[in-house]
Each structure stands twice: as structure tokens, then as C-alpha cells.
Amino acid sequence: MVNDIKSKLTDFFASENKKVKIVVIIGALGMILILLSSLGDGAKKENKSSEAFDYSSYTQQLEHKLTEIISQISGVGECKVMVTLENSSENVYATDSEIRNDDNTLNQKDEYVIYDSGSGDSPVLIKEYFPRVMGVTVVCTGGDNIKVREKIIEAVTAMFNISANRVSVSKIKS
After folding, report:
1. Whole-angstrom Cα distance, residue 80 to residue 69?
2. How far apart are CA 143 and CA 145, in angstroms?
3. pTM for the structure as a whole
């Protein structure tokens, strides 16, 4: 069988018909490209499914950015920050509602709008809400100074749109 394939390939390349050779080579290259692109899609699909929300890294990012900003305020000094999140992230999906009114009874049926994503059916995502900040604790060297404390509270409440009673500022232990 291997000898048959070798002899046919030898006959093919020995023939004088250039048009047939070009068409066969282009077809083979096309099939190879299709195979390679389908392998690449598999890797992308795996990455997409593993993009679950990571609360700890989100919290660490918030704390890091907040620490950078607060430490720039005059009189703060060394600074440590802790951020508490109120709830989990929330995704809002598109729905198709059907309302029927049968003999004094109101029935409503909601179904998610689904699309074919290539890796299977997926609901249509309309909005994604990140967790809200519930409270912030700041411990810094200048935490005993009333003016510094007010500046920190003002900055934190402005950044996260939370009330001042959700922000705690204290002096760092010496």
C-alpha cells in the first residue's frame, strides 16, 4: 500500500500537467490551514471557559491601586489597605418573555436568548456587574492626624461611591 502511494506521487510529480499540480497543491495547503485554524480555536475556547471571575485578584488589584493613591496624600506615610466586597459579580443575560392571559390567569414564561458560539450554545450576555465595595480600612502612619484622616476618607468615598461611615482610618502600630 505504501508502495502504491509512493508510485502515484512519483507519477503525479513526473507528469507534465502544471495546472493539475497547482490545484492539488493549493487544495492540500487549504486543508492544512483549516486543520491548523481548528486547533487554534480549541485553545481559545479553553481559555474563554476558564475566565471565571477571581475575587481575590480583583480585591488585591483594588487594594494595590488604593494603597498607591492614598500613599500619595501628604502626611499619610506608610499605608496598608483592606477592601471588603459587598456581593458577588452579576451577569445579566438577554431573555425572551412570553405572557399569556388565560381565563383570569396571567402566565409569564421567560427563556434565555441562546446563540451558537462554535463550542456549543451560550446565552447572550447583556451586562456584567462587578462586586461593589462594602467597606475600606486604611492603616497608616499619619492616621492619628485629623486632617490626614479626612483627606483619606474623602478620597476613598469619592473613588468607591460609599458613605464615610464605611471607611475606617487608623494609625499604624509603631
Report:
1. 11
2. 6
3. 0.55
